[in-house]
Amino acid sequence: MQEHLELLIPIITLPQFRKILAEVVSEEINKNHNYHTEPETEKLYTIREACKYLGLSKPTIYSLMKEGKLKSTYLGINRLRFQKQDLLAYINSGRK
Q1: Which of 2, 45, 59, 61 could bridge 49 with an S-S bond, Cβ 3.0-4.6 Å?
Q2: In this structure, are strands 73-74 and 80-83 parallel, antiparallel, or unpaired?
Q3: Which of 15-19, 36-40, 83-87, 92-96 has the largest mean confidence?
Q4: Which contiguous run of DSSP H or E holds residue 59?
Q5: pLDDT tens digits for 32-84?
Q6: In sequence order, what are the beta bridge partners of 74?
Q7: What's the DSSP call for residue 42?
Q8: Half-sphere exposure of 7 (CA within 13 A, CB side)
């Protein structure tokens, strides 16, 4: 019985195993990467990210929101977010 089991189990070296494992992991990452990728316009930015993206301060961002010049979304208490499409719309409006 032992003789038959040895024939069924291929013997590979540690470097061969590492190479095979790396290939399998890489394939899975690449396969799943496209599944989880969101279109650019669906990314939600924090106030800090929006400030950096637009080159504006927090008070300016809040003023633009109040004036209706910059659209934002609240995801709950203290969870203000901006869609990239809204940040781009503000930029394309001439930044008035």
Answers
A1: 45
A2: antiparallel
A3: 83-87
A4: helix 58-67
A5: 554 444 455 477 999 999 999 999 999 999 999 999 999 998 887 778 999 99
A6: 80
A7: G
A8: 4
pLDDT, greater one: 80 or 25 = 80
Domains along the chain with CATH numbers: 43-92 (1.10.1660.10)
Q: What is the reported pTM?
A: 0.54
Name residues whose C-beta falls within 8 Å of residue 81's C-beta, 6 or more positions apart in sequence.
Answer: 44, 45, 46, 72, 73, 74, 75
Collapse the DSSP code of 10 into the 3-class scheme (helix H, G, I; strand E, B; otherwise coil) and give the result: coil
Please state the φ and ψ torsions of residue 79, each to the nearest 5 degrees: -125, 65
* 54 within 8 A of 87, measured Cβ to Cβ: yes
